[in-house]
Amino acid sequence: MEKGLVSVDRWTEGSQAYFLTHLHSDHTQGLSSTWSRAPIFCSRITAKLFPFKFPDFNLSLLRVVDVGFWYSLSLVFPSSASRTTVEFMPIHAHHCPGAVMFLFRGDFGWMLYTGDFRWEANSERAQLGRTTLLNALKGHRLDVLHLDNTYCNPSYDFPPRSVAAQQVVDIIVSHPEHDIIIGIDTLGKEELLLRISRLLKTKIWVWPERLQTMHLLGFHHIFTTKTTLTRIRAVPRYSFSIDTLEELNKKCPTIGIMPSGVPWLMKPSDGADNLFGSLLTSHYKKRQGSTSGRLQNGKFKDNIKPVDGRHRYIYSVPYSDHSCYAELQEFIELVQPISMKGIVSSSCCYVDPVYYFGRLCGGSKPLERLSDKQEKEDGSERVVAPEMKSCLVSAKSTNTDRKRKTGKGGSTGIHALRRVRRGAKIIQNDFSADSLES
Ligand SMILES: [Zn+2]
């Protein structure tokens, strides 16, 4: 896609439309409460959490879009000044609350930006996501796949979250006299905590800001900030350390659990416990052959160790909100991209996904572009009303909208286009809620 049209999780480049996949900080760098460049498209949950992360943000700039619906933008190619229609669909990313992928189509072909995502192909919700994606693609291959390559290495071989969550529960149950601390981020791992709470019939302590987030997500009676009500505490990841646990154990027997796709690492200081060498070492039996048989009779068939203990007080459990290597492969085989790029470039372990999966790209089958279809079918392939949905959040207008109406007008982004023609309109059509998903 030509630069200057659309930006996803990038906030420093000039574009006509901006998209936010989710609210983790590494996807919002450059975004601030004073943002005024153009509207931002995001999911409903992300919009709900947005003011908490960006107080005083002009919320009229948020455009809520719903998963499984096509939306349409009228933009202008910067190189030719010719008008083009960019259509997009949000799809569940199963990463953290509110996280979505964005599928784009237009004169540039088909493009998918996964953001961070977990593709547990055997879970019920992932099956739904798979159906949504395949229905949207309608047999087209992707021209470009922007892939969450966080764990794009065969060494990253971890089980579904349901399996890892049970491991966490088992650890807690096997330490009935201990206090428990679990390292989490400011968003994510809610399902793990809910499962612990449900199975062990206990509340879980979180820090005050995290409690507000939990309440925004609708979890009102499960979490608490009173330490006297529970022995299980979810603590900020940055405060999870050996020093912390050593100190806690001077007062009360305490273990720490770190749920992550990367084994929790100690600093390489004394040599004996130097774990840095294990960073790319699988802790599970290497999968043989096809990855399609990960589950057998509902059970994870690999001979995994139940828990990888790394320190006398610390358990590292492979509970990940990112896809493991095998899941990435399954996903790429499903969407058959012509080309592919990794979205994570700053990691010290960055691996270009083409290195491992380049053989799955390209292929001999010519891509049936949208524009080809339009020629063949005389426009009938264009997005039709039943699939469309307005992404205008409310009747509130943005500052630039107001300027436009008074004839003063903003000069950047899609609103400038509105001045010139009918608008970078988000094409509004009638639609029925059950038009696409089934
Ligand atoms: Zn994330």
TrEMBL record:
Boundaries of every DNA repair metallo-beta-lactamase domain copy: 221-338
Cross-referenced InterPro entries: DRMBL (IPR011084), RibonucZ/Hydroxyglut_hydro (IPR036866)
Pfam family, any one: DRMBL
GO cellular component, one term: nucleus
Matches recorded under Gene3D superfamilies: 3.40.50.12650, Ribonuclease Z/Hydroxyacylglutathione hydrolase-like
MF-aspect GO terms: 5'-3' DNA exonuclease activity; damaged DNA binding; endonuclease activity
One of the protein's GO biological processes: interstrand cross-link repair
The keyword Nuclease is assigned to this record: yes
Keyword terms of this UniProt record: DNA damage, DNA recombination, DNA repair, Endonuclease, Exonuclease, Hydrolase, Nuclease, Nucleus
Protein's cellular compartments: Nucleus
Region (Disordered): 394-415
The family this protein is said to belong to: Belongs to the DNA repair metallo-beta-lactamase (DRMBL) family.
Entry-linked PANTHER family: DNA CROSS-LINK REPAIR PROTEIN PSO2/SNM1-RELATED, PROTEIN ARTEMIS
Protein name as catalogued: Protein artemis
Organism: Erythroxylum novogranatense
Source species taxonomy: Eukaryota, Viridiplantae, Streptophyta, Embryophyta, Tracheophyta
